[in-house]
Structure formats: C-alpha cells, structure tokens
C-alpha cells in the first residue's frame, strides 16, 4: 500500500489508521505480532505506528 500526500496529510493518515482498527487490512497480523511480543517480552514494544511503517510506504509530496 502507498499513501501519497503532503506532510500534514500523511500525519493525518497515520493517526486515522492508528486510531481506527475497524476494517484495517493489517488487524489480524498486527494483533499476532503484539501477542508474540507480549509472550516473549512481557510487554508490547512494537505498536501500531511502527507496524504500519513496515507495511505502508508513506510518500510526502514536495
């Protein structure tokens, strides 16, 4: 997935994705990652924002 926009639009998209997991295409795999971290580390250190950075290319238009 690629999201293209200015810096403000990109930040808005990140916030919207991070706060609304409903119908997120990465919900199941993100939750699995969190469960694995919780078991291994006792806490979730790899949050939604970091997960989305791996899965989505954010392109800032100049």
Description of the structure:
The chain has a two-stranded parallel ribbon. The protein contains 3 helices and 2 strands; from the N terminus they run E-H-H-H-E. The chain is elongated and about 40 Å long. The model has no long low-confidence stretch (mean pLDDT 78). The protein is of the alpha+beta class and 62 residues long.
- What oligomeric state do the depicted chains represent? single chain
SS-based class: alpha+beta
Task: Give the radius of gyration.
Answer: 13 Å
Mean pLDDT: 78
Q: State the share of residues found in helices, binned by percent.
A: 55-70%
Beta-strand proportion: 5-15%
Q: Largest sheet at a glance?
A: 2 strands, parallel
Which term fits the overall shape? Answer: elongated
Distance between termini? 20 Å
Within the largest sheet, what's the order of strands?
Answer: 1-2
**What are the low-pLDDT stretches, counting only 5+ consecutive residues below 50?**
none
């Amino acid at each position: 997935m690629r999201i293209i926009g200015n810096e403000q639009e990109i930040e808005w998209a990140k916030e919207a994705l991070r706060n609304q997991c409903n119908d997120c295409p990465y919900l199941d795999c993100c939750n699995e990652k969190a469960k694995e971290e919780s078991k291994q580390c006792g806490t979730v250190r790899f949050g939604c924002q970091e997960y989305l950075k791996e899965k989505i290319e954010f392109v800032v238009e100049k």
